[in-house]
Amino acid sequence: MRRILFLTGPGPVHRRIREQGILPLSMWKSDGQKPVPGQTGWCLPMPSLHREEARMNRQREKGFSLVELLVATVVGGLIMAGIYSAFMSSINVFSSQQEISQMQFNSKAVVSFLKEKLANAGSGVPADVPIPPIAFLNNAATISSTSYLNGADAIQIRMYGNVGEAMIVHSYNGSAANLRLEQPNPVDVNTVNNQNTSVGNLLLVWNPGTTQYALVEITHVNEVATGGGGTGNDTKVNFSPGLSIYNEPGGLGANYTGGLAMMIDQSAMSTLTFFVDTNGVLRMADGNFDLQNPTASTVAALPLLDNVEDFQIQIGYDTNADNIVDNWSWTYDPVANNPNINQALVLRCFLLARSQRTERFVSNVTRPDIDPDDGITYGGAPTNVRRRIYSFTVQLRNRLN
């Protein structure tokens, strides 16, 4: 006999039975062959019911398990970490390249500026006048460790502009604060608006054929009678100490009688000084700058380039006036004037710049020692920065014979 299952209620199995078109119980006999009147349920053979329940169980099991979800989370995290690492690496590379490009651009601009200015050293003064075209400090920190970077050089140039005619020094010897010039000479002794027009100008005095020279500022001018034999008048030029930074208490410090003098328009003269301060900033001072006492002057100096580790100058000297460099020197003694700075003909300059930020992938990079004669070691220098050396050569064209 065939078994019949009666189902009532609105459950999921009933809905499925209705969807498959199973007949209501009233249409079946009690033995499974004839309908039985009065029944209100549904009937389904048992094997069909088991198959239907198994099918619905399989449908309810669709989706992700907890293990699958955890595995997906871990894999996704690894992928995101890789993407983030690549992104940060590209950002660091971009920032590094941008900084290096900026450093190179700024350094090249400063090098071009230095070449132009240094080439004009000594302009306006004839080459046979013994005034040096430059003032130079080798390892300037030995003069002032609070103003100059340890090991770096400092250089000062003067462009004299308008200069007057050469005049004969009639009388000067000792430490006097005045000298006499033979007339006629271009020094104006007449006053304009109660002020002599020569006052405030510079007077360059030198002995031809020697290295003796002096540069003073005129503080007073008048005519005086010529002493001793001869006729005519002399022009007395005063350079009182304390009234100008150029005028020393000891006067000119040598015998310039019979020597020559030349008046220089101070308003047309330009003095430029280049040095590296203790913070690694290459600076330029425009105006009279005391290399031997720079403390009060470094504050107003114009910054040219940051992150400078060294600035070295090698000087080429022409010892026989043939416009050819005979020897090179890193060192210079300003007291003994050794080598003779008046014979300087060529400057070979080296500028060492570095990046501001340190880099993880740059390490154990030794800082180059440009000047082997300065005796300076750089054990404390950063080793994980990028560096660039810029070298250039400048001929002091105003010193050519």
What features would you highlight for this structure?
401 residues, 27% strand, 3 helices
Short description:
The protein is an alpha+beta fold and 401 residues long. The protein has helices spanning 12-19, 46-60, 66-118, and strands at 5-7, 42-44, 134-137, 154-159, 163-171, 178-182, 191-192, 195-196, 202-206, 213-217, 220-225, 233-238, 260-264, 270-276, 282-286, 302-305, 308-317, 327-329, 344-354, 387-395.
What does this structure look like?
- With 401 residues, this protein is α+β, with helices and mostly antiparallel strands.
- It has 3 domains: 5-60, no CATH class; 105-158 and 269-401, no CATH class; 162-268.
- It is 19% helix and 27% strand.
- It contains 3 helices and 20 strands.
- The protein has helices at residues 12-19, 46-60, 66-118; strands spanning 5-7, 42-44, 134-137, 154-159, 163-171, 178-182, 191-192, 195-196, 202-206, 213-217, 220-225, 233-238, 260-264, 270-276, 282-286, 302-305, 308-317, 327-329, 344-354, 387-395.
- The strands form 5 sheets. A 7-stranded antiparallel β-sheet has the order 10-9-13-5-6-12-11, with no helix packed on it. Strands 3-4-14-15-16 form a 5-stranded antiparallel β-sheet, covered by helices on one side. Strands 18-17-19-20 form a 4-stranded antiparallel β-sheet, with helices on one face.
- 26% of the residues are buried.
